[in-house]
Specification:
The chain has 3 domains: 2-153 and 244-356, FAD/NAD(P)-binding domain; 159-240, 2-Layer Sandwich (Alpha-Beta Plaits); 372-480, Glutaredoxin, CATH 3.40.30. The chain is built from 12 helices and 29 strands. The chain has 481 residues and is of the alpha+beta class. Helix 1 (2-8) packs parallel to helix 3, helix 1 (2-8) runs parallel beside helix 6 (270-290) and helix 6 (270-290) runs antiparallel to helix 7. Residues 474-481 have low confidence and may be disordered. A 5-stranded antiparallel sheet has the order 14-15-16-13-17, covered by helices on one side.
Length: 481
């Protein structure tokens, strides 16, 4: 995802990938509404077709309706292998340079560049010198270790065992809490059954390798009374409730995204979605920095914006892990939460907004009186000179920004013209009772979040802050109706 975003912004990008071939293991399978919106803004959803939509999610195993206003309410079931292939093809099509079979071994950090050393196929060594390096290499990040970046937090104290298994026939289970533990099972159309199991009061083991299937089968039998050891495992792994976050997402010319920046139990697909949203926030900012046009401090807004989001997700996952893996002592809390979700619509919406990512609002504390500023551009129908349009279509700007003129302001269109190479201007009229309210204009960043609403002053300061130095005076119109 990050490689594609960097290429959209014009940055030359090399991806060093340890695996010689794509993995066949689809450990994650959920795309939440905000991620679907971001993928659609890059024109990527057509390739997915229409994946299954499951409106019912959960919070710590307590059922939760995730539907909120969005073109993609709920959660969408897409195997991780399919998501990875989609993003790989997109990034390569944009010109990213993917080097498979290259494992990072060493790095040197200078004031003006980073030099990485990787072991490639056949033992050949590869050196790559670049302006910046980004660690997207997971919770055991090699780049994080080489930088020496502090990664404070909590070690795992509990774990789930998980496997995809062929040749077994067990009842489907959705977070079934039994006397001895938690059991989850879901059989796919191809006959493969994913099973997960946790034994109450059992601690997390210190592992140097993935568990054997025999261990999972033994725990499954103790918890459920069922035998699955005759099945054929496709893969087996375990994951614990470790909870860590980098103190800083940026270390000079090195940045971190995804699980390299934060480690959390993968509950409800939040880890995968959090990482993809990190990448979309970082990509256009880093590309602007590399181009030499960025304003002072633009790149630092990546940490300023995404670290609080990550901290909040880690906190909600810690709460979910307690509800999900705790024994009988958590039942009163689960009962109370279920009552709040069922009887208090605002409680349901709060939890659904947090899990889906739809409630993210950057810099909310700096403009408490302007609910649009920092929020994502909401979906709404618009009326232009040549007919109807909607904000979903307008966000497909190939990684550029969007200035939406809602009052037919010629002076506004003149002001944005020096940034016309990186900001698309559209004149339209919103519905009077729509989510844009009485806003006369909105300036939208490449990640879909609103940077200026016209509430105070002109857009020039916001354009300079988020889109960099303006081009010399341009001739001709830059807007479309």
């Amino acid at each position: 995802m990050l490689a594609g975003e960097l290429r959209l912004g014009g940055a030359e990008t090399v991806v060093l990938e340890r695996l010689a071939a794509p993995t066949t293991e689809s450990r994650a399978s959920t795309l939440h509404a905000r991620t679907m919106e971001l993928l659609d803004s890059r024109g990527l959803l057509d390739a997915l077709g229409t994946p299954p939509d499951e409106p019912r999610g959960h919070f710590g195993g307590v059922p939760l309706d995730l539907r909120l206003p969005s073109p993609w309410p709920g959660q969408w079931k897409v195997p991780q292998t399919r998501t990875e292939a989609l993003l790989r093809d997109w990034a390569l099509g944009l010109g990213a340079d993917l080097r498979r079979g290259h494992e990072l071994r060493a790095a040197r950090f200078a004031d003006d560049h980073v030099e990485a050393v990787a072991a490639g196929p056949g033992g050949r060594s590869l050196r790559v010198r670049a302006r910046f390096a980004v660690g997207c290499d997971g919770e055991h990040s090699t780049l994080r270790r080489l930088v020496g970046a502090p990664f404070p937090g909590r070690e795992a104290s509990r774990e789930l065992l998980r496997a995809d298994v062929a040749g077994i026939d067990v009842p489907n289970r959705r977070f079934q809490r039994l006397d001895r533990g938690l059991a989850i099972a879901a059989r796919r159309a191809d006959g493969i059954t994913r099973i997960m199991v946790h034994e109450f009061q059992a601690g997390a083991r210190r592992r140097t390798a993935e568990p054997e299937f025999a261990e999972l089968a033994e725990v499954w039998k103790r918890v459920t009374g069922e035998t699955v050891d005759h099945g054929t495992p496709v893969w087996v792994n375990s994951f614990g409730d470790a909870n860590r976050q980098l103190a800083n997402y940026r270390h000079g010319r090195v940045l971190f995204a995804g699980d390299a920046a934060h480690q959390q139990m993968p509950i409800g697909g939040q880890a995968l979605n959090l990482g993809l949203q990190d990448a979309v926030n970082l990509g256009w900012k880093l590309a602007t920095e590399v181009s030499g046009r960025a304003s002072a401090g633009l790149l630092d807004t990546y940490h300023a914006e995404r670290h609080p989001v990550g901290r909040r997700v880690l906190a909600d996952i810690r709460a979910q892990a307690h509800l999900l893996l705790g024994g009988p002592e958590v039942e009163p809390l689960r009962t109370l939460l279920a009552e709040l979700i069922d009887e208090r619509p605002e409680a349901r919406a709060h939890l659904a907004g947090m899990i889906s990512g739809l409630d993210i609002r950057y810099g909310a504390d700096t403009a408490p009186g302007d609910p649009l500023l920092g929020a994502r551009l909401p979906y709404t129908e618009l009326q232009g000179v040549h007919g109807g349009m909607n904000t979903r279509d307008l966000l497909r700007t190939s990684g550029r920004g969007l200035l939406l003129d809602l009052a037919g302001d010629a002076a506004l269109r003149t002001a944005v013209r020096p940034w016309a190479d990186r900001v698309v201007t559209v004149t339209a009229r919103p519905a009077p009772d729509g989510p844009l309210g009485a806003a006369r204009a909105v300036l939208v960043r490449p990640d879909g979040h609103i940077a200026w609403t016209g509430a105070t002053g002109g857009p020039e300061n916001a354009l300079g802050d988020w889109f960099g130095k303006p081009e010399p005076a341009r001739v001709g119109r830059s807007d479309k109706n």
